[in-house]
Design brief:
Layout: H1 4-15, H2 19-27, H3 29-47, H4 51-54, H5 66-83, H6 90-104, H7 106-109, H8 118-140, H9 143-166
Bound molecules: protoporphyrin IX containing FE.
The site of protoporphyrin IX containing FE has 17 residues, from helix 5, helix 6 and helix 8.
Length: 172
């Protein structure tokens, strides 16, 4: 059994997520929240380009399932909003661990589907990293400031990624 709150704190220290980083994440939070919907729509467009990813959000005939897509978009937007508060509390760690377990345990509730292949989770985080830097450049109008904001977000995105992959390493 992994002690998620401790693990998340450890990774935060390891990636060097400082109070300055947390300050930058929070101060750029309004920008990220403003783009959250658009970014998440882009993520789902990407997901549907890959049948092994798109099938989690598809109907039996292979077309996108609008309700499932919308519900999951809302969940991803909430995750991004959560990150924008740069949380360090135990609930944040448990939340990420629960999402990880949900991705792994898909076959329990939806027989016929495998666990979410984690390369798509990694790829999604990379997608957000790339887009956030572009957005900060545009919105902050200063490359050095955008690079600093992006570096801080990269750290919390990596903390999140570690926990999002965590359930794949253990059996619960
Ligand atoms: C940064 C990456 C990702 C994050 C932060 C994320 C986050 C979440 C969250 C917050 C939930 C909902 C938890 C709840 O209902 O309480 C969820 C569920 C789910 N996610 Fe992800 N997700 C990510 C990537 C992916 C990818 C790439 C796929 C598939 C290719 C995927 C497939 C699913 C599925 C199938 C569910 C369960 C939905 C259901 O059937 O009820 N996720 N995810």
């Amino acid at each position: 059994m992994i002690d998620w709150p401790n693990r998340v704190r450890e990774v935060m220290r390891y990636v060097g997520l400082t109070e300055d980083d947390r300050g930058r994440i929070k101060s750029t939070g309004p920008i990220v929240r403003r783009y959250a919907d658009r970014l998440t729509t882009e993520v789902y467009d990407l997901i549907f380009e890959f049948p092994e990813a798109g099938k989690f959000f598809s109907l039996d005939d292979g077309s996108p399932d609008p309700k499932r897509v919308q519900d999951n978009k809302d969940s991803m937007v909430q995750w991004l909003q959560y990150l924008s508060q740069a949380p360090t509390n135990d609930a944040f760690a448990r939340y990420l661990a629960a999402v990880s377990a949900m991705h792994r345990d898909i076959p329990i509730h939806r027989p016929g589907l495998p666990p979410v292949p984690y390369q798509f989770v990694i790829g999604t985080i990379s997608f957000y990293q790339t887009r956030l830097l572009e957005i900060f450049r545009e919105e902050l109008g200063d490359d050095a400031q955008a690079a600093r904001a992006s570096a801080s977000w990269n750290k919390i995105l990596m903390v999140s990624l570690d926990a999002l992959l965590g359930a794949y390493m253990v059996t619960s």
